[in-house]
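Subject: design request, 234 residues
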């Protein structure tokens, strides 16, 4: 939902349509109430607005959805730097408020790409076929007594886990071994590790700052002329 709220491709501005922030909130409240009513229990709701009304919109949505159903404020860098900003900071971002109908909402995790510097630093090893990989620990980040077992590897050596336990069960460990993904320590007391390949890594999980969506061309079909749409002129 866009904060400027046009149902058609009209070109009137936010100020033309709503004389004040209060008028805008009064206009949007019944619509948000109805959207909340028809939203499935597993559904989520995203509200896109700019800095003029974002604080008031957040209060309104908290009242409708409940404060505990507010999941994130997403900051979207929607345009490039401005030169004619006067005596203030340039506004290049909008807010997107993310709410859920209940705590049992559907979530599809989005992953982003690794930065080149990160890849060059972390995935610094390569197989003969050119596949890049990094060495990662097999230590479990938390205490898992059920994953605390000795493992006898294909090299005939038995390895003991960290006190937290391994990060995988014996079947998965044997699979890593069969596929040549285990990295055996070269010195006494070293830890068993494994290869993590770059082409199998999903990338970092999407965070709440979005800065990789290009602005909409002013001549594009989806350009509606509202302030909350990012756009630029060719």
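Subject: RE: design request

Done. Sequence follows.
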């Amino acid at each position: 939902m866009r904060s400027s709220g046009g149902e058609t491709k009209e070109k009137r501005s936010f100020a033309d349509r709503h004389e004040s922030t209060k008028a805008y909130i009064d206009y949007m409240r019944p619509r948000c109430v109805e959207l909340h009513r028809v939203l499935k229990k597993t559904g989520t709701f995203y509200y896109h607005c700019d800095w003029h009304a974002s604080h008031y919109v957040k209060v309104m949505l908290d009242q409708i959805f409940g404060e505990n159903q507010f999941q994130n404020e997403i900051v979207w860098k929607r345009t490039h730097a401005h030169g004619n900003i006067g005596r203030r900071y340039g506004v290049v971002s909008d807010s997107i408020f993310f709410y859920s109908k209940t705590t049992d909402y559907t979530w599809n995790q989005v992953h982003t790409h690794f930065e080149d510097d990160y890849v060059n630093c972390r995935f610094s090893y390569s197989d003969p076929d050119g596949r890049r990989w990094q060495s990662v620990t097999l230590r479990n980040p938390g205490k898992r007594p059920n994953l605390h077992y000795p493992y006898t590897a294909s090299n005939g050596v038995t390895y003991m886990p960290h006190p937290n336990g391994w990060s995988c069960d014996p079947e998965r460990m044997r699979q890593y071994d069969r596929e040549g993904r285990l990295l055996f320590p070269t010195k006494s007391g070293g830890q068993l590790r494994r290869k993590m390949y770059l082409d199998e890594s999903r990338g970092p999980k999407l965070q709440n700052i979005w800065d990789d969506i290009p602005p909409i061309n002013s001549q594009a079909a989806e350009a509606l002329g509202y302030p909350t749409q990012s756009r630029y002129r060719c």
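Residues 21-38 form the longest helix (18 residues).
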